[in-house]
Amino acid sequence: MTGAEQPTTDDDAAELIAQLRELAGADPADVRQVVAEVLAALDRAAGGALREHLPETIRTDAGLGPAHASHP
Questions:
Q1: Out of the domains of life, which is the source (predicted)?
Q2: Does 37 map to a domain?
Q3: What is the predicted pLDDT for the residue at 12?
Q4: How many other CB atoms are there within 10 angstroms of residue 65's CB atom?
Q5: Count of CA atoms in the C-beta half-sphere (13 A) of 13
Q6: Is residue 21 within 8 Å of 34, Cβ to Cβ?
Q7: I need a surface site. Which of 17, 27, 34, 71 has the fewest CB within 10 A?
Q8: Does residue 3 form part of some domain?
């Protein structure tokens, strides 16, 4: 690395995107399922706050139910 102890968030995101693209080549439906499971786990870890930022179709795929319109 270039002096940094840990990779940047951009590096992490680029690596994740590359891995998902590799998976998608094999079976896009499998990738969609994996992404839905990851998003559901992240939403649980965030106390349900993530679902407010996801499109409805992704929330449905992840089994997350509706976003809460609790913002003033």
A1: Bacteria
A2: yes
A3: 84
A4: 11
A5: 3
A6: no
A7: 71
A8: no
Residue closest to 48 by CA, chosen among 57, 59, 61: 59
Range of the domain at 52: 21-62
pLDDT at 35: 83
Give the count of beta carbons closer than 10 Å to the beta carbon of residue 31: 17
pLDDT tens for each residue of the chain, 72 residues long:
454 555 567 888 888 888 877 777 767 788 788 888 888 998 899 998 888 888 888 888 888 877 665 444
CB 62 within 8 A of CB 40: yes
**Distance (Å, whole) CA 65 – CA 70:** 15
In a domain, 33, yes or no: yes
Concatenate the DSSP letters of all residues of 41-72 into one string.
Answer: HHHHHTTT-GGGGS-HHHHHHHT--PPP----
